[in-house]
Amino acid sequence: MSASRPTRSSTGSAWGAPLRLVLRLLVMGIGLGVITGTTLKLLAPRLAGGGTPGPSLLPAGTPSLQPLQRGLSLGRFEPRSELSGLSQKWAQLAARHKDLQASGYLLVLDDGRFAQLQAEKPLPAASSIKTPILLAALEDLDTGKLRWNDPLLLTKEVIGGGAGWMASKPLGTRFPFWEAATEMIRVSDNSATNLLIKRLGGKTVLNGRFQALGLTGTVINNWLPDLDGTNTTSAHDLARSIALVDTGEKLSPRARDLFREVMGTSRTNTLLPLGLLMGLGGDSADPDSDLLAHGVTVLNKTGDIGIAYADGGLIELPNGQRAVAAFLVKGPFNDQRSTDLIRAMAAEVARTLVGRGSGKGPTVSPTAR
């Protein structure tokens, strides 16, 4: 007897069930894919933008995780709570010298703590006025009014004596803008400063811009070096001019970087930086390097015309916060008490914001620019 073979009807019955199962799975897969894709499309903007999260899958009572902030705050130039003890200490230090006029200001940009001593009193600016001039110059770079390599022509009108080397070059020499801006801060070149004043529109135009920036006590009346002290600024203005940059209120990020780079070239560190180091118990011919060991960095610009001294800078603190501080003192010509007073006030800043040191007083009297 031959073996039986499946009939056509029995063969179709055997394959029909698997085919139907495959088709059902395909339909279900397509359906789930459409639903999932639609759901993700609707949720994507909320997830990317940090929208309100859905119901928590954590057990009841479990603290929810807060999203991390993106980037550190740049802070604001907004005084909120006075460090009264520091303000009083400055007043006591200044009161010991009745014939000196002193001004001081400190603001921690992150939390608004501040100290003040006749902070808005205009005093001879000396070379410290170069900081707001640098701010104005980089504003014009930001807006395209000048370029980083624009040539500045050395004329008899802008040659200034004292600090710097550009005055020794022949009349008609052209300096790129970046070199004049850098040398104005690095070696406090007075001719470089005058080149910038002229390129930015002159004294009257710059004075108007200072007023618009809220630097009400900052005025240029004469070309640098201005040994008679007719150009003025205040501790508040110097601190504000630096804070406007560091908080991002003025200048683009790239121009802000240039400002910091140029300020970082300043050679003279015998007032604010040395005073801070002394407040931490140190004393050094290279205070910037020694401050790094304490987690402190200072970007500053000094001023010195004999009858007046000044220094203003950005202070980066060990805890990551930033502060701006500035001091001015007017007194008898080449009187060491003026520079000592600035260092003593800066030392109190370090003791207040970083920690108390040995309390050593100033032991050196280097010449500032």
Question: How would you characterize this protein structure?
Answer:
The protein is of the alpha+beta class. The chain has one domain (81-353): Beta-lactamase (3-Layer(aba) Sandwich), CATH 3.40.710. It is 41% helix and 14% strand. The chain has eleven helices and ten strands. The protein has a six-stranded mixed beta sheet, sandwiched between helices. Helix 3 (130-143) packs antiparallel against helix 8 (253-263). Mean pLDDT is 85; it is low at 1-13, 39-70 and 358-369.
Compute the average pLDDT: 85
Describe the strand arrangement of the main beta sheet, using strand numbers. Answer: 1-3-2-10-9-8
- In DSSP terms, counting alpha (H) and pi (I) runs of 4 or more, how many helices? 11
Distance between the termini: 122 Å
CATH level 1 name: Alpha Beta
Task: Please report the total strand number as a whole number.
Answer: 10
C-alpha-based Rg, rounded: 33 Å
The number of domains: 1
* N-to-C series of helices and strands: HEHEEEHEEHHHEHHHHEEEH
Name the poorly predicted regions.
1-13, 39-70, 358-369
Percentage of helical residues?
40-55%
CATH homologous superfamily, by name? DD-peptidase/beta-lactamase superfamily
- Helix and strand content put the structural class at alpha+beta
Residue share in β-strands: 5-15%
Question: Mind summarizing the main beta sheet?
Answer: 6 strands, mixed
- Give the CATH topology: Beta-lactamase
**Outline type:** globular
Second rung of CATH, namely the architecture = 3-Layer(aba) Sandwich
